[in-house]
């Protein structure tokens, strides 16, 4: 059994940690409602522009980078959305684990992934392991704005539109955490570009093949041309998808931090209770020993007097 001084020291330090965890939980609780509403409100616009792009490319004979890129370019871009701060449980570690799995799969396919990272935790992780990073962004991962989404989308679009001879990429992937509810957040891998075509009459049968696209009858007329229309849509499409992923990842990070801090607070309180019981037991043992010594001394004096 530890000494009373050591137990008191542990109780004091654990109490300080419990206050910090509880404060972090309260802060996350105050932010989660707004983060959830912002993420859910952004989803309809992103879904609408994605459906519009799919409808355009599914019903027209188009050869545009938004649906097809150079086949002989093995370079692909992977964007991982991590967090700036810790105390969020397995949030960042889950993203890193899924990113590593995606990079391994791409390597097995003979592709050359180029890593982009948003969030200080992920950037530090890969820099510490000397992993080559094409670009990084940091700041406000729990409350991302339109500006950061625009900055990231411009960098990725520039990499995607470059020809292979200039170091361009042929595919864009995003690894992020989708907000399902306060308890469930799932790590997702999204291939943002090129857009996968889904059969409009049989949406559950997987991506549309080239033959399906050729047989689809044109339903749209474009002015001035389809290439100029898609060139105008492409930046908006990329930015909207990235912005939605940032917002749902922010909601997931806040929810994960609230859950982690709630668990940490409960664990700290349980540890304080356990240490308090040990301290009381130590005090009781000390008092019992002192009483035993006093009684023994008194008996010895009485025996000596007799």
Automatic annotation (TrEMBL):
Main localization of the protein described in the UniProt heading: membrane
GO molecular function, one term: ATP binding
Superkingdom of origin organism: Bacteria
Subcellular location: Cell membrane; Membrane
InterPro entries per the UniProt record, alphabetical: ATP_synth_F1_ATPase_gsu, ATP_synth_F1_gsu
Entry keywords, A to Z: ATP synthesis, Cell membrane, CF(1), Hydrogen ion transport, Ion transport, Membrane, Transport
Signal peptide positions (record): none
GO biological process: proton motive force-driven plasma membrane ATP synthesis
Matching Pfam families: ATP-synt
GO cellular component: plasma membrane; proton-transporting ATP synthase complex
Membrane topology label: Peripheral membrane protein
UniProt record similarity statement: Belongs to the ATPase gamma chain family.
Function noted in UniProt: Produces ATP from ADP in the presence of a proton gradient across the membrane. The gamma chain is believed to be important in regulating ATPase activity and the flow of protons through the CF(0) complex.
Known partners and oligomeric status: F-type ATPases have 2 components, CF(1) - the catalytic core - and CF(0) - the membrane proton channel. CF(1) has five subunits: alpha(3), beta(3), gamma(1), delta(1), epsilon(1). CF(0) has three main subunits: a, b and c.
Stated name of the protein: ATP synthase gamma chain
Naturally occurring in which organism (per UniProt): Bifidobacterium lemurum
UniProt lineage: Bacteria, Bacillati, Actinomycetota, Actinomycetes, Bifidobacteriales
């Amino acid at each position: 059994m530890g000494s009373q001084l050591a137990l008191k020291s542990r109780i004091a330090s654990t109490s300080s940690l419990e206050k910090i965890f509880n404060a972090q939980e309260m802060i996350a609780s105050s932010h989660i409602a707004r983060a959830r509403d912002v993420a859910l409100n952004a989803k309809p616009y992103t879904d609408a522009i994605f459906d519009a792009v799919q409808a355009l490319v599914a019903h027209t004979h188009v050869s545009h980078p938004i649906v097809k890129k150079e086949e002989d370019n093995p370079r692909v871009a992977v964007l991982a959305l991590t967090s700036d701060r810790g105390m969020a449980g397995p949030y960042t570690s889950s993203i890193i684990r899924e990113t590593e799995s995606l990079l391994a799969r791409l390597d097995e396919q003979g592709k050359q992934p180029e890593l982009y990272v948003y969030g200080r935790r992920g950037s530090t992780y890969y820099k510490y392991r000397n992993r080559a990073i094409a670009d990084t962004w940091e700041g406000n991962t729990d409350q991302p704005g339109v500006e950061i989404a625009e900055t990231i989308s411009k960098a990725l679009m520039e990499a995607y539109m470059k020809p292979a001879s200039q170091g361009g990429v042929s595919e864009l992937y995003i690894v992020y955490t989708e907000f399902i509810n306060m308890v469930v957040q799932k790590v997702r891998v999204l291939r943002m570009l090129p857009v996968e075509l889904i059969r409009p009459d049989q949406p559950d049968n997987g991506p549309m093949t080239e033959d399906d696209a050729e047989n689809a009858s044109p339903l749209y007329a474009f002015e001035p041309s389809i290439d100029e229309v898609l060139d105008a849509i492409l930046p908006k499409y990329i930015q909207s998808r990235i912005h939605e992923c940032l917002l749902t990842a922010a909601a997931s990070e806040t929810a994960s931090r609230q859950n982690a801090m709630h668990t940490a607070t409960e664990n700290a309180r349980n540890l304080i209770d356990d240490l308090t019981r040990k301290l009381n037991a130590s005090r009781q043992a000390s008092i019992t020993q002192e009483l035993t010594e006093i009684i023994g001394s008194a008996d010895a004096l009485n025996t000596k007097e007799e």
